[in-house]
C-alpha cells in the first residue's frame, strides 16, 4: 500500500515530506481495511509524528445488518501493530 502511495505521489510531483497529514477511512473488507489503515499509518509515521486514530471510540466491535456483531478494537489493533513494529525494529 505504501509503495502504491509513493508511486501516485511521485506521479503527481508530490514528495511524501510535503504532506501535512494522511487520513485513512474504511478500506476494502471493512475491518480488514481499518486494520490495514492503522498499520499503514503507524508504519509511515516518523519519530515525533502524531498518529490519531479516531472514529469508533469506546466501541469494541461493529454491528451489521441482521444483528451480526464482529469484535474489533482500534486500540488493540494499534497496540498489536506497535509491538510488531518494535519487534521488526529490534531485528526479531
List keywords for this structure.
single chain, 92 residues, mainly alpha, 2 strands, 7% strand
Task: Describe the secondary-structure layout.
Layout: H1 2-11, H2 31-44, E1 61-63, E2 69-71, H3 74-89
Antiparallel strand pairs: 1-2
Following the backbone from N to C, one meets helices and strands in this order, namely HHEEH
- Tell me, briefly, the overall form: globular
The total of helices stands at: 3
**What ranges have pLDDT less than 50 throughout 5 or more consecutive residues?**
none
Kindly state the percentage of residues in helix: 40-55%
Look at the structure and give the mean pLDDT: 79
Which sequence of strands runs across the widest sheet?
1-2
User: Count of DSSP E strands?
Assistant: 2
Largest sheet: number of strands, sense, barrel closure: 2 strands, antiparallel
State the end-to-end CA separation: 23 Å
Instruction: Tell me the count of domains.
Output: 1
Please indicate the percent range of residues in DSSP E strands (runs of 2 or more): 5-15%
User: Pairing-aware structural class of the strands and helices?
Assistant: mainly alpha
Alpha carbon gyration radius: 15 Å
In a few lines, what is going on in this structure?
The chain has helices spanning 2-11, 31-44, 74-89, and strands at 61-63, 69-71.
Describe this structure in words.
The chain contains three helices and two strands. Strands 1-2 form a two-stranded antiparallel ribbon. A hairpin with a 5-residue loop joins strand 1 (61-63) and strand 2. It has one domain. 43% of the residues lie in helices and 7% in strands.
